Target: Corrinoid protein
Amino acid sequence: MGSINEVAELVEKGKAKLVGAAVQDALDSGCDPTEILNKGMIDAMAIVGEKFKNGEIFVPEMLVAARAMKKGVEVLKPHLSSGSTGSNGKLILATVAGDLHDIGKNLVGMMIESAGFEVIDLGVDVPASKIIECYRENPDTKIIALSALLTTTMPSLKDTVAAIAAEDFRKDIKIMVGGAPITQEFADEIGADGYSEDAASAATLAKKLAGAA
Ligand code: B1M
Model:
């Protein structure tokens, strides 16, 4: 019988080949998909992060854990999403320049997509110029959503928001930001229109900002 603990252990150990089946087992035994995500995967990544901080593991171990989590999320995705229609409009999503973390961004994208947005995901380490170019190609975009997952890329988030703010289209869009080191206070300071702490509240915020709440 599948369990959330087993998923957590496999994510922590970076067993990418086994995680998918363990997630499916947990689902088959009636575990709640959100609980599998939070307790089986996000909590496991927090442990991985702690071990890295304490020097017990190194970057390669963080990387294999991330790969394992991604495999698990693939299996979980249809159970978390509601089948989007894109009816709330377009949203451009990116992790800012200098930052390679994408799991949190991907979860945010998934939840926002299920909230009815068409998400254009530009990936990680995205320079402001690429975001601006993407907006020019998609001028019906309503929101630009930016992730920064390192304290060292918070200045990059600030610069990205400033670069977008300098564009003539600033008044036509909303900017929302998030990521582990980001706070409401920082979001206000850099001139973002919204901040949210996690993927679920990011979807609620996107709807509010798009006037669809
Ligand atoms: Co990195 N890393 N990492 N890492 N890594 C952290 C973030 C760290 C906290 C680990 C630690 O020391 N405890 C630490 C940062 C410390 C700091 O900021 N001062 C750290 C470090 C130091 C580094 C390197 C510098 C290590 C090195 O090279 N010496 C390096 C930097 C590389 C770079 O980006 N330039 C690095 C590299 C990596 C890997 C590439 C190996 C890998 C990432 C692989 C990948 O993403 N594809 C990695 C990983 C896996 C982690 C940890 C272990 C896990 C990150 C994760 O996926 N968490 C992480 C420790 C941790 O987070 N506890 C760590 C799960 C994810 C669901 O959470 O990303 O917070 P999170 O997203 C959340 C919220 O933040 C929020 O919602 C999400 C879902 O709830 N959210 C938003 C995110 N974006 C949002 C946007 C929104 C709203 C909400 O609106 C737009």
